[in-house]
Sequence to fold (167 residues):
Amino acid sequence: MISRFHLIPFHRKSSSESDGPHIAGFAGMWTVFDEAHITTIGVDPTHRGRGFGELLFLALLDEAVRRGASFVTLEVRVSNTVAQDLYQKYGLVIRGRKRGYYSDDGEDAFIMWSRSLRETQYLERIEELRHQLTARLGPTVTVPAAQPSPWVGAPPFDLLNREDHIR
Fold:
């Protein structure tokens, strides 16, 4: 399956910006079988505290659901309580600790896991949070609506039943 690269356009241009677009944030995730693993979320320091990190995190949750993932995992710096609070707001819990995980300074990371992305109550909670974020961001930023998963109730593929997995 060929995956598509998705961009969520959000840009606020100040009067002093005249040299083209500015990247306000970025995010990355990989999926293997039924696990979606968030690898990175970053927001330019001048845009922090405005909900853009939450917007990116929500987009990754949506993509995980769309791809048929059962849960989301990530690592977060032990010192990054702002990010931990966001992830806990969305139901992720600390399940472990990786000692010396970050190569730049040897800081530990917490391993966080979501509840099941197939659990109706959890998906309803994510929708409540989506509406709150929409209200917070106001009309200047559009919060995308959740896209339905084409894999409702089933993983996106089954390696055991694929005829083309053995050559």
